[in-house]
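Reading a protein record of the kind used here takes little practice once its layout is understood. The fold follows as a row of integers, each naming the local backbone shape at the matching residue. With these conventions in mind, the following record can be read line by line:

_____
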Amino acid sequence: ATLFVSYCGFGEIASMAEEIREPGRNLPRAVLGSVIGVTVLYCVVILICVSLRPYQELGGSTIVADLAADLMGRWGRGAILLGAVAATVSSANASIMAASRVSFAMGRDGLIWDWLNDIHPRFRVPHRAIVATGLATMAVIMMGRIEILAEVAGFLHLILYGLISVACIIL
């Protein structure tokens, strides 16, 4: 479930279309570039893992950190763990950013509170929607059990993609 959710972020780029310069040109580039870049990176990591250990030994959630520790000692493990934390924070930031823009658009369309529509005068971002989304995200995280959260997120992404497909057919 957690691996599936890590691939779901590519669609979040589209939620920023209103804030991107020349979205017709730059949005497809951003989506394709991120998909290709991450796919290449994942394939290189898998190739390195398979090259360093027999496939029978490639189990567990810390295999990349274990291999880094074998090659570079505790500094290698630390670098991988630091990269994993940075990737998690980056992913959470992108999710909050995308969700806040969806909340902002729903508020603008009158589907939820108009209060979320306030644009910051200096930074030109929907700051109330960002704060509300960040607080809701933190509340869900504080409940614990990240595995259940990942499973629910994966299921909801499947429902979302299904509804998007139906909406495209209807439109």
